[in-house]
Amino acid sequence: MKENKEIKIIMKGNRIITRKDLFEKKELFHKELAKIPFEEKIKILVRLQKIANTVRSASKKNR
Length: 63
Known about the structure:
By secondary structure, this protein is mainly alpha-helical. The chain has one domain. The protein is 63% helix and 10% strand. Strands 1-2 form a two-stranded antiparallel sheet. Strand 1 and strand 2 form a beta hairpin. The radius of gyration is 19 Å and the shape is flat. The model has no long low-confidence stretch (mean pLDDT 88).
């Protein structure tokens, strides 16, 4: 069976991207993240934890 490498994916906003382009962009995104200094990554992590705690608290209040 032949594999079609030009599989198209419909993205948010009806943008169409090929599977190959998607994985290339994903790889580039990860390379850019790797360049961020460790201290900045920790700041991002703390900020995400605060957001998660806020969401968790709101979820418990709505039960």
